Amino acid sequence: MNDDDFNAGVKMAFGLPRSLEGMSIDSLKEYRAALEQEIKHVDIALEHRKGAHAGAEALFKS
């Protein structure tokens, strides 16, 4: 599987990229704000997972 195939699969799984044709400026701004909020949400989840992963590693190393 090459990178293009993988990226296409990931994009389809998450509904990305979304067609921006026909969206008004206000709609695009709202969409961008929603994406930024989702990125923050993902960042928080990643930090939580990193903490849990680090805790598990520390538990099993001892």
From TrEMBL:
Do you know which InterPro entries this protein is assigned to? DUF1192 (IPR009579)
Among Pfam families, the record links this protein to: DUF1192
Which branch of life, at top level?
Bacteria
Q: What is this protein called?
A: DUF1192 domain-containing protein
Q: Which organism is it from?
A: Thalassospira aquimaris
